[in-house]
Design brief:
With 414 residues, the protein is mainly beta. It is built from 2 helices and 27 strands. The protein folds into 3 domains: 104 residues, Sandwich (Immunoglobulin-like); 111 residues, Immunoglobulin-like (Sandwich); 133 residues, Sandwich (Immunoglobulin-like). The strands form 7 sheets. Strands 1, 3, 6, 9 and 10 form a 5-stranded mixed beta sheet that branches. Strands 20, 22, 23, 26 and 27 form a 5-stranded mixed beta sheet that branches.
């Protein structure tokens, strides 16, 4: 019995020692909050002090300022701290909103807004806030801050339109014709609404005869981005503006909706006179008889008196007939038709033709035109008795009596 107690006690001792040995192998901090690391307490980072808004800071500057595109401008910003011992830092929080602006160490804000800063159809100015910030610090004391917004107004600069090119459909024109002139205009302040488009003015040019009364605007086209093409029409369909060849001038200028005026551009056009058809006083057939002489005078002339009338030529004249012409003046020819009608000439209608060319009296115009005429002589059987009185309806004697009046009129133009 005693031996069993002793053995049991030994088992208890061994079990107790085994339990203690197992416990010594465990982490003494297991299950506890870990406050130690490598034998030292982990430091807790200190929170930075947050600035507080304070009336102790004064920001001295303008409340608002107006800039104009493509112009320099600027103002000064300064700050004060009413409590002693503080040092302050002055910054602009949104400098990126003002491209190419500068804010220097003296507190001077300068800016040169580029053209196009103000955008939008019909928008003439915009307002942008400038955010000024001051932070004041003193060791061991509360950090102060204060902000101020300065409203900056940017006003659009109104650029004048620009006439970029002028193109004529022809260098010269003639009375009775039309010509187009294309004028390209750039106006960056124009919108898409036709009411905002520039207006093209056509004005006389000093020192040159004017075509202004004959010019109209036939079309205006808009290609976007402020680009326009204005088409002018010069219409001389029913106009007499020159007696030969003259250089005409006019000028164009564009005016924007904001009354900005472009530089004027001169346009010159050479205009030649139109050629009137020559007129011949031999207007009907004349009678003749075999065995008689026909001597008929007629005139070919320019009714406007502007062209140079060349000597007429004639073809298919009756056998033995002649036509001789002499100048009355540069625009008219006096001609004489002479035919000794042989007795053997059969009664019939004898036709022949004539041709006359006209040209400009001014050598700058090389244009010529040709006019054809047809003449008729009717040969009858009876020889007219020269003692018979003249018949006013007789083309041989009647019109001949009126010829001197025509000649007198034409000769007066010499």
């Amino acid at each position: 019995m005693k031996n069993m107690i002793t053995l049991f006690s030994a088992v208890l001792v061994i079990a107790s020692m085994s339990a203690c040995s197992s416990k010594w192998q465990q982490d003494p901090l297991a299950g506890e909050n870990k406050v130690l690391e490598d034998g030292q307490q982990k430091p807790t980072p200190a929170e930075s002090a947050k600035p507080v808004d304070s009336e102790a800071i004064r920001i001295d500057t303008v409340d608002s300022y107006t800039f104009i595109e493509d112009n320099d401008g600027g103002f000064t910003v300064t700050s004060r701290v009413l409590e002693p011992g503080y040092t302050s830092t002055l910054t602009i929080d949104n400098m990126a909103d003002f491209p190419d602006a500068n804010f220097d160490s003296t507190g001077h804000f300068t800016w040169h807004p580029k053209p196009g800063t103000v955008t939008g159809d019909g928008v003439m100015q915009i307002v942008k806030p400038l955010k000024v910030k001051v932070v004041a610090e003193k060791p061991g004391a509360t950090i102060y801050q204060r902000t101020k917004v300065v409203n900056l107004t940017i006003t659009k600069i109104f650029g004048a339109p620009v006439i970029t090119s002028v193109t004529k459909s022809e260098d010269s024109m003639r009375e009775g014709e039309t010509m187009t002139v294309s004028v390209q205009v750039r106006d960056q302040d124009a919108g898409t609404d036709p009411k905002t488009w520039p207006v093209l003015q056509v004005l006389p040019t000093q020192g040159y005869p004017s075509l202004v009364d004959s010019i109209s605007i036939s079309d205006v086209s808009f290609s976007g981005n402020g680009q326009f093409v204005v088409t002018l029409k010069i219409d001389l369909s029913n106009k007499e503006v020159t007696k030969g060849f003259d250089r005409f001038g006019f000028s164009v200028r564009a005016i924007s909706r904001y009354n900005q005026v472009s530089a004027s551009q001169d346009v010159f056009v050479n205009v030649a006179t139109s050629f009137a058809k020559p007129v011949c006083t031999w207007t009907q057939s004349i009678p003749a008889t075999a065995g008689s002489e026909v001597n008929y005078q007629f005139v070919i002339y320019d009714p406007k008196g502007e062209t140079y009338l060349n000597t007429p030529t004639f073809s298919n004249l009756p056998n033995g007939a002649t036509v001789n012409c002499t100048n009355l003046n540069v625009s008219s020819q006096q001609c004489s038709f002479v035919w000794n009608v042989d007795k053997s000439v059969a009664p019939d209608e004898y036709d022949f033709s004539g041709e006359v060319s006209v040209s400009n009296q001014n050598s700058s115009d090389s244009h010529t035109e040709t006019q054809d005429f047809d003449f008729k002589v009717i040969v009858g059987k009876k020889v007219k008795d020269p003692t018979d009185p003249a018949d006013p309806a007789d083309p041989i004697n009647g019109p001949k009596m009126k010829l001197p009046a025509v000649l007198s009129q034409l000769q007066g133009g010499r």
